[in-house]
Amino acid sequence: MTDRIPHIFIAYARRDKAALTELSTHLQFLQRRKMCTIFYDGEIKPGERWDKRLKDELHKATIFVLLVSADFLNSDYVNDVELPKILNKEKQGTAKVLPVILKKCLWKYSEISELQVIMDGGKPIGQTGGFGEAADAIANVVTEYNQAIKDELAVTELKKKQAEEQKRKTEQEKKERLQKEKERKKRKAEEAARRRAADPFHDLMVPIKGGTFQMGDEHGDLWKKWKDCRPLHPVTVKGFHLCQYPVTQAQWRKVMGSDPPELGFKGCDDCPVESVSWDDVQEFLKKLNAKTGERYRLPSEAEWEFAARGGTKSKGYEYAGSNDVEKVAWYWKNSGDKKLYGDWDLGKILINNCRTHPVSQKAANELGLYDMSGNVWEWCEDVWHGDYKGAPDDGRAWVEGGEKGRRRVVRGGSWIRDVRYCRCAFRYRVNQDIRNDRIGFRLAR
Predict the structure, then answer these.
(1) pLDDT tens digits, one per residue of 224-244
(2) What Rg, from alpha-carbon coordinates, does the chain have?
(3) CATH number of this structure's domain 202-440, picked from the four choices 2.60.40.1180, 3.90.1580.10, 3.40.50.300, 3.30.365.10
């Protein structure tokens, strides 16, 4: 720990060697007690580089004792090498300089005059208490220096302890925070697991990014007949979620406890549930939301068409996911035991065992939604209106006016209908209390 105690450098003239010996004898006691280290050029060992050692000692010294005499003041080495470095360190505040006046001389006319000499009035040491008093004065400075170091170490140690305590506190707070976050995530995961257990639709809801599209259709001879799909108009839909496929028979039973009383195609868990009226669906939604704590609902007509067309990823297909209806839809020609041809014929349909089919067997559309065209009609929230005049342009369900309380909108076509009904833009109306084996529904949120 010698680097933490004062380093005394004694500067003197060769002719004052006796004074050096006398003073250093007094100071050796301080060095023996490890209160300081003492250096003068006599400490340099034979073979050691003299100039390098002096340079190193001048650099590390914190107390300089100057043995001042006429010989000291006249020394070229003292004036040219040692004294400038010593006084520079004193100005910088990195060392204390203690002049000891050995003999009467002209020291008051030198740079030393600006320093506080050890003896009162700058009297020569021979006219005062001698080297013992000078050594005592130097010892006082050493003691003050050591006390300052001790205080500094105490402050450093205190800061270290405070830093360690703060670090410990911070680490503990971080640990507690991480533990709380871990517990929060665990609770969230458990809650999600509970919801999934009670909610057969949790992982099936597809996020639909909002956007603007042209709703309806007014081009071609087909649409001259169906004026209810006009006028073509822009609608901006907000983001929402839509189920990948229509609600299945198994999903209906999980929520309601049993099949619909008039279910047409029983025993096919993965087939769309059908023979449910719009009013029946409202009861289903109440029970489902009570069980899950979610806000499931029917899509608005605008949301349904936006999603069927592929939303912001739309490629402009006529049907939901393709211009080839066979790829994406179950309809009257392909929903039976064999492929049918020609014009729509109910007799052929009945003989051919046409029916609903398990969901997701046809190709999905651009958003990953299945059976938006064909299989079963899907209830929408909207009241039926004969055309789009006055319809909302923000994607909301149109629930005022029209045939409120009587008929609601259905979309998508079904297993028993012609291809025209499978078009993304096609809309139809059904009494909201009607149950038949062509109508099901899909959940939105």
Answers:
(1) 566 888 899 999 999 999 999
(2) 50
(3) 3.90.1580.10
